[in-house]
Amino acid sequence: MKKLIFSVFVLLIFLCAKCEDDTPKNPIDLLPPATQTGANTFGCLVDGEAFTPDNRPNSFDHSYVYSDGGYYLYISGSRTNPNGVISPAIGTEKLSILEGETYFLINRQKGSAYGAWYRSSNSSYTSTEYSGELYINKHDFANKIISGTFWYDIKDAFGDVHQIREGRFDIRY
């Protein structure tokens, strides 16, 4: 009987250890992989926590279009949380993006790139004080694929500063 109890005890220890190992300890591991295939993915760390769009309609939005004499890139993901809907985003205004280039996320104005933060009906944009960078890993015009990485700091409409880190996206436009 003692052998049976000991065996069950040892088995439970191994099962608990296995369960613990299956849980990712690093929030980055919860983000989509950094691909360059047009997989239509978006993710980042928001204040140290993994962020990906939830599965609501329109929770992932992206475009790269030529309009009014310039190119406009827009990529955002949104998720519902206790404070409402939050949505980090990146974009450009009348700015053609090139593979291998880094763009500073400063202001939302013509010829610039920007980071954005939307919380419910309030919007905020990067500035000279709270800024970041966008790097384009791939821009394949023929197959309409853009992939890249980003990070930025942003002060929201409520005065809270958010750190957006390890951002990645891979879109087909």
Automatic annotation (TrEMBL):
Q: Where is the signal peptide?
A: 1-19
> Which domain of life, per UniProt?
Bacteria
Protein name from the UniProt record: Lipoprotein
Question: What is the organism lineage in this UniProt record?
Answer: Bacteria, Pseudomonadati, Bacteroidota, Cytophagia, Cytophagales
Organism of origin is Bernardetia litoralis (strain ATCC 23117 / DSM 6794 / NBRC 15988 / NCIMB 1366 / Fx l1 / Sio-4)
Keyword list, A-Z: Signal
